[in-house]
Amino acid sequence: MSIFQLTLCLRFRYLVYSFVTYIGSSILFVYLAQTANWDMPGFAFFPQITFAHMIGGTLFIIALYLQTEGIRRAKEFYNYNKVGKGRAARVLIRHRDVMQIDTSWKEQWKATKQYCFFFDVIPANLFGLGGLLGIFFYLTQGMGILPFAVAIGFFILGGLSINYAADHLCNVEIEELYSNPQTYDTAITHGKQEIIERASMQRTKEQIEKERRRNMPLPPESDKQRRPPRKPY
Predict the structure, then answer these.
(1) Per-residue pLDDT tens for 146-156?
(2) Which of 22, 25, 125, 161 is the most buried (most CB within 10 A)?
(3) How confident is the model over 2-44, as pLDDT tens digits?
């Protein structure tokens, strides 16, 4: 997949995510307002639906703005994996029986989607929902402190999602493999040599034991052979 195709695919996916954010936030705000029987004296001239669309539209614009940074980060992740895996695969090609490295663009695209989902999409929606609940808590006290507590929970979950993408999906060991595959080549080569040497020593021991047994005298087959008769003198 070329970078141009990747950009188009990412743009389309982020647009879909933005529309989902807009629709979901609008529905959620209306649901919360109706559940709490909101009482917003300062905003009484706004119908619930209109206010919900305003909130959803604001989040939609923010999501569109964040697309640029998200797409740039996704392309960097895709290129880093593509180049790094190619370098590692070329160095470790003779060790493919031990370490399999998939360099296909499908695998890179799958990893990129997963990274974007946890680093951009989930945190953006959780932060947006947290901000939405914070606004709702500010505008009405109909549900007490519950929206504020849930908003804090959403922010914490969003931060955990970013940490998962940055620390787990972007593993330090993977980075070491991509940047210095020669060290892995050396380690695997030494490991294979040790296995071959141990197997050779074991075969040598077995061969020596086999020769020793073959050169041993045959055991006696009868009592006379075990106790030869005395000589007549």
Answers:
(1) 777 778 888 89
(2) 25
(3) 777 877 887 787 777 777 777 777 777 667 666 655 554 444 4
